[in-house]
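Q: Sequence in, structure out?
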Amino acid sequence: MLYQREFQNNEEPAKHHISCFGYETEADRQYPTHCHAYCEISYLVSGERYQIINGQRYKVEPGSFFLFSPLCMHGYHNITECQDLVIQFSSDFLYQVSSSLQKDQVLEISPDAEPFLMLDGEHRKSLDDLYQKRFYNRICNKKGNLAEEWQMDAVILQFLAKLLENGSIQLHQGYGGKEEIQQISDVIHYLMANPAERLDMHEASRRCGLSYYAFSRFFHEMTGMGYAEYGNLIRIRHTEELLIYSDMSVEEISRAVGMSSANYYTRLFKKVNGMSPTKYRSVYGKRQY
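A: Exactly. Output:
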């Protein structure tokens, strides 16, 4: 489990509030489940992978488009070698170009749509072209000039505008502002860094300077889960990495994340993953990122 405070490497999001990279990753590559306080677009140019979103696993193919709202937990596991475009942007990026955007609005995939979109035609071409340019700049360690930055911003904004216009994505209202997102993201960062500690919701709300009920409402709106459910999912995701990359026993792993017993941990793990920890370890084995 990771909490990312910064955008992708080698860029200056403090100036532009946006980061755009093209990547090539090998077959069987994994990126651990993580979240952050900014939005992310993930577009698969080529290859096949499993995309994990808030504990659910989806098999995806070229043309798959994901929009991860702030604090959405996501990761991936490549089936084949993959090429993908990853765009990360803060709410400030959108506020700078729209005077009508309210401070408590955030972009998300429309609720009546699938968790991801399959793009075709001009939508795919615009992102495929952007991928080629950003991947070339990255491997050549070439920094874009101002004209190139503006072109990139224009492509992304035009693309988001088309998806917003046809109803594929929408603006969701009710999250609270940037300050609330950051406060709750700090709590999530703490939970991820200390999976064995039981931080109850009263203490979590106190740390955020919010009432118990306001914290509960904001947390559910931002993550799509209740606080206790989210905390348990963080612990389960942490144990997945221990199962794959360590020789610890199931009982040792359950103690490492503060579970009351190995039996309780096994039941919770099976509920999330559809298999026992022992079965999970035998299926995925020891791997390297």
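The chain is about 45% helix and 20% strand.
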